[in-house]
Amino acid sequence: KLLVMIDEAVKQWYQRRVRASSLSRGEKQQTETDITMAITNFIKSVETKTKTIGRDLLKMLASLEPLVTQSRQGLMFMLLLEENKIFNSFFSGTPEIEMRMNQCFSQGLTVIYTTFHIALLDAYTRHDTTFFNLLDNIGFLVQFQCLLSTHGNELTMLEDHWITINNLAHCNIVLTSEELGAFSLTGLAYKVTISFGVGAEIWDMLPVGLKNRKPIPISTMLFTKGVNEQQMLSERVGTNTMEHTINIDGLCKLEVYFMMYKEYVTQNNIPGDLQKLESLISPICKHARAHIYKDVKLLVMIDEAVKQWYQRRVRG
Length: 316
Known about the structure:
By secondary structure, the chain is an alpha/beta fold. It contains 15 helices and 5 strands. It starts with a helix and ends in a 6-residue tail after the last helix.
């Protein structure tokens, strides 16, 4: 019976989630209620009818309770899309593009949330108040890399990747004193504000601006280098311009962020090896503009520069 109940809960979840975009607001609210009730009833049933399964397993099942809250937030991005038809006005009559954008953007928000969470915990562990001051003054740097080619289906994937990363730059983060990791999404469909809870201990380390809910801008950039046989074909037939365009765009954004960083640390006399960082940025500019074939060294150098900025690089 336990397996049957789990099967019913999973089926209920995916049936509702798959067709959530076609539901009315009232039906979506009913969906959230149904999911909440399914999980809650499952937990209560296990606790009352199967007391012999052991304390550890009961603890594991009790940990499912946060899913009740998450289930209520599961349709959050879909509701933003329904309430803000901004995207539809640009791509009228192209549902395939809209679907791709929705899928990629929602996944991109997950990357931003996860990366920021890890960076926040790392700064707290090291008692690094400089990190919080950088967030307050110049924002959060998120650098993406990929090895997709510019030929065939991989070119389409690369385009999706690039457009999504550019759209994420229109989002921002606002910190709250809620428990660490608590979050909510507000704003327009592709201009989202992520309210992020940091907990009492981290909250005490924040500068005044962030405590006053000052938005943290997100600086996103992409660097790419195709390394497979598809890229070799792209180079020979001359369809490799997208890679160079993306890298130059990422380079411009990197230089802008570096200039803001340099101005901030110089004006505030913040300790740090600015000269070393400048020595890392210079060869990055050279390699990006030269467009060297399969030059993965470019990605390695950018890795080193980002680690120099934040003392470590969050890998995903």
